[in-house]
Design goal:
The protein has 221 residues and is an alpha/beta fold. It contains eight helices and eleven strands. Helix 6 packs across helix 8.
Length: 221
Amino acid sequence: MIKDRHKILIVDDEEALRYGLKTYLELEGYEVDAACSAEEALSLDLKKYNLMLLDIMMDGMSGTEMAEVLKNTPGTADIPIIFLTAKDSDDDMVSGLNLGADDYIVKPYSIKNVLARIAAVLRRTTPKRAHTINCDRETLICTVDGTTVRLPKKEFELLALFLENPGRIFTREELLDRIWPQHSVIADRSIDVHITRLRGKIAPYGKNIVNRSGYGYGWQD
């Protein structure tokens, strides 16, 4: 299930395809609008959409003509486009991609394939939101995006170390040296226990503490 409620616009003059695709996308959790022509689509507030699915061969303005308008208009130039079309030659595909489309899917298509391609384009084009983070060493309280938790000292020190070095993976030896400088009595696997507890206490952000198997741990947005 898609959790971010991406907004998608379908532009296709085939009612059955338009309705069917809209239904499946909404079942996946997307917010979906549909237009039966490029002219109708261009009358909408297009800046609110995260992705557009355009048919190419439509009465009136074609999907490629609409794509050119979008790519040459501030506010819509960066919206990802996927062409859904019966035009299946290599030249057609190259032409569509050269217009700035992010993908090109030939009809007839499987819904499973379309959903996978949509998800892939959105992953590539959706900016990752940075977390708002604050850790207070005096109170041992960490706040991540408004979620506040008070932690035992060692777990706080682990989290603070990760948050201060996002993207870096610390080896187990580094963690022992930094968090337990006198670690002769600390078993190496004790780190796993502390990490498991920490992940549970900072849910839903526990998934941001990542493990590189056989190496160590770190924080990734």
